[in-house]
Amino acid sequence: MARRPLGALLVAPHLLAPRPPGVKTTDIERLVQQLDGKSGESYDARAELIHIGSAATPAILDALPSREGFGQLTAIEVFEEVADPRCGPALVTLLDSDNPTVRQWAATALAGLEIEDAVEPLCCAYRACLERQTPPDESEPVAIRWALTDLGARSPVVPSLTTRLQAGTGPDSPGWPSAHFAEIIDDLADHSQLILYSQFWRVDAGHTYGVSGTGLDWLLDWTAPWEHLVEEARTWSLLEATEAPVADNIFVAPTWIDRTDLHPER
C-alpha cells in the first residue's frame, strides 16, 4: 500500500464520507462527547463510531483538542479501526501531548496508517524523549522507534547470524526459535547492539499466543558508556536464556537498539 502524505489529506471531509442513512450529525457529536465518559459508555461510543466509519471523522477531529487523555486515546482507537488517513495531521499534533500514553498511541497510529510525512514529527518526538531522559526501553520511545522503522526511516542493525537463524522460520514468525536465544544474544552484543528486553511467543494451530518469560527484570544506568551497557545487557539476557521456555513452537523476540538510537542525528 502506498504511504500517504499529509498534504494529500487536506480535502473537504464531507466530500469523502457521506453519513450513513439514519445517522444524524447530532448523533455523531453525542457519541464523540461520550468518548471521555465512564469506561462502559466510552467503549459503547467507540464501537458505534467505528460502525459509522469515516463519516464520523470530522466530528472527532473537531472535538479532539478538548478531549481528556482517555477520550483522545479512545479516538485514536477509532482512527485506527476505521483506517481514515485524514486523521494524520491531528495525530501529529498529539505527538506534543502532555500525556506520554497519548504520544505513544499517536506514534503507533501514524505508522499503522502509513503517513509518510509523519517521519520528521516522529523524529522530533523521539528527540524530545531523549531530552526528557526517558529510558529507551519505556513504551513511548519503543513505539516511536517502531513507527520510524515501519515508515522506512529507521533501519535496525541485524547481524548476519541473527538473520540466518530467523530465515527458516517463515515471514509470519513472531521471532526466532527460542532454542537459539543465547546465540542471538551473543551475536547482537558482539555487533554492539544493546538488548532491552525479550518477549516469548507460542505458535499453536496457526495462532500466536504470548508466553510468560522468566520474570527477570533489570535496570541499566543510561549514563554509563555504551560498551558497558551492551555487556551488562548481554549478561542479564544470557541469564534469562538459561531460564527461558524452549520448545519447537516457542519463539523469542528480542528488542534491541543501536548506539545511534541514543544519539540520533539532528
From TrEMBL:
<protein>
    <submittedName>
        <fullName>HEAT repeat domain-containing protein</fullName>
    </submittedName>
</protein>
<dbReference type="InterPro" id="IPR016024">
    <property type="entry name" value="ARM-type_fold"/>
</dbReference>
<dbReference type="Pfam" id="PF13646">
    <property type="entry name" value="HEAT_2"/>
</dbReference>
<dbReference type="InterPro" id="IPR011989">
    <property type="entry name" value="ARM-like"/>
</dbReference>
